[in-house]
Amino acid sequence: MAYDVASVRGLYTSLSDGWTYLNAHDCPQIPERVSAAVSRSFRLAPSVPAPEGRTGTHSRQSLGRPEGDNLLASARHAVADLVGASADRIVLGPSLPVLYAALVAAMAPQFRQDSSLIVSPLDRPELTATLSTANVQIRTAHADLGTGELPAWQYKELVDGTSRLIALPAAHPQLGTVTDVAGIVDIVRDRSRAWVVVDASAYAPYYCIDFDAWGADVIGVDLGQIGGPQIAALVFRDSAMFKRLSIDPLRLAGLGLAPGLAGGVSAVVDHLASLVPAPEGRSTRRTRLVASMDELSSYLRSLRDDLYTFLGTWPAVHILGATGEAAAEASTERLPRLTFGVQGVPAATVYERLFDNGIVTTLATPTPLLTDMGLEEMGGAVTVGLGPFNTYADIEQLIRVVASLA
Length: 406
Known about the structure:
The chain is α/β, with parallel strands linked by helices. It is about 35% helix and about 15% strand.
């Protein structure tokens, strides 16, 4: 089973405009299958499906209810396949900040005066700001400023009996560093009964998520980051966890969710499951998804290696978290994303030169972590993120333009 990138590119009609898109971290291209599904879902959402001719244990029981209810149910099942869970453990919402805010509000009965909540510098600032609204002590983990990685050992000091919630990302969206989620979860389990919440949004476009392998309590996914509609989901380890929550805030989180958008969730998961031919014999969507994402991961890993190798050969190019002596011992596990700058050349100039040559990237968004790593001192940086449709020719084009500046 081989990854046929030419066939995959045909699934994205937006690629016909001539641009080379290397901005999957910021604005993933939307597959034609998803846009068509959303259009169809908006038409069908307010309509009422015809009653089934026969009744039975599997027949529809929501007579007279709009089709939008079925679209939301299908979206939960699709997310369940995406992360290896069951649909009854999934809460949908318009965005992860909204869902995180609802989770913090719903956990209020568990918080005491001396409770603590641990956040990570690799988390997106908007998620950290949302979690910091909890009326508890906020503790912050520290990242390695040379590599951008999140050392697991520090959680032995941060986590104790007062800890109620630990939030961390599965990967950094701009640096591409991957977090040792399972290692951190093991430490937390040894020291407290706190819930571990993992933001898998940056990780999900490249690897198949195995909920049980991480051992986390809650996984958050922004489906827009994998080319789907602007919908997010929280997936809980067990539906019994809802009994420990004030569930109303979680239900309120989904009030702003358009059923028409939900119709695109199944489409994007089906898209990811069909990037390579299906395994022989009858197979579930989860089985197809695992096989497809394995091939995608292998393909993009090779492009990532070329990207890091060739950019890293230029002395004037500095890749945050990968260049320098401090990064010599960095983990090799990284997403096909990186953030780089060219010595003596402002980041805006690099960005504009790339854009003039038909390459779409983004200027790195300053965060406390990137600032501490020297983003401002190097004159800013440009972030590159690969998608399922990128080719080796795209990497070569990027290298040629950067070489003209370096």
